[in-house]
Write a structure and sequence with these properties.
The chain is mainly beta. 6% of the residues lie in helices and 39% in strands. The chain contains 1 helix and 14 strands, in the order E-E-E-E-E-E-E-E-E-E-E-E-E-H-E. Strands 6, 7, 11, 12, 13 and 14 form a 6-stranded mixed β-sheet that branches. It is globular and about 50 Å long. It starts with a strand and ends with a strand.
Length: 170
């Protein structure tokens, strides 16, 4: 995935020996409103630069055929904790918070999270480095730090992925 400002071009490639072969795309989508950064911080509206594993998916809708990882159909109790001072920072949790965190993003967020996939960023859960970085449905503008594609393109990529898939963001 390459970007310029908040616009992104996503290509799905497979490794063949020492090089990569284009299999899907290029697709046009978006990244953070403030672009891509190698020094991502919580709330900076930037998408982290680097190579990250693609993890399980979630959404308001059922599994669209995600080819790798698990699928969680979310409801109004599903959140992603973005409170840097919580021990549950950068994890999926269920309401009520009961004092476990002060801030969390609701995952029942349509249409953006009709279909979404976790990008394995900040898996060490370092406070302040950023949380809730997802691959999700595009809304036609820059994101809060996620990578987004129009629904058809997103589902094509999700169904194409295999175990060990990664996203390279630059």
């Amino acid at each position: 995935m390459t970007s310029s400002g908040s616009s992104a071009t996503v290509r799905a490639c497979r490794r063949s020996g020492s090089h990569y072969v284009l299999e899907l795309g290029p697709y046009s989508g978006h990244v953070g409103k403030n672009g891509v950064s190698s020094s991502k911080r919580e709330g900076d509206l930037r998408t982290p630069a680097g190579t990250f594993p693609l993890r399980g998916g979630f959404g308001a809708n059922g599994n669209p055929g995600l080819a790798t990882g698990s699928w969680l159909r979310v409801d109004s109790s599903d959140v992603w904790v973005d409170d840097s001072s919580s021990s549950l920072y950068n994890t999926h949790q269920r309401l009520p918070a009961s004092g476990r965190w002060d801030s969390a993003e609701k995952l029942l967020n349509t249409p953006a999270y009709n279909y979404a996939q976790v990008i394995g960023y900040n898996e060490s859960r370092t406070p302040g480095r950023g949380s809730a970085i997802f691959f999700h449905v595009d809304l036609g503008h820059g994101t809060a730090g996620c990578v987004s594609l129009p629904t058809t393109s997103l589902l094509n990529v999700m169904r194409w992925e295999r175990s060990g898939a990664v996203m390279v963001i630059r």
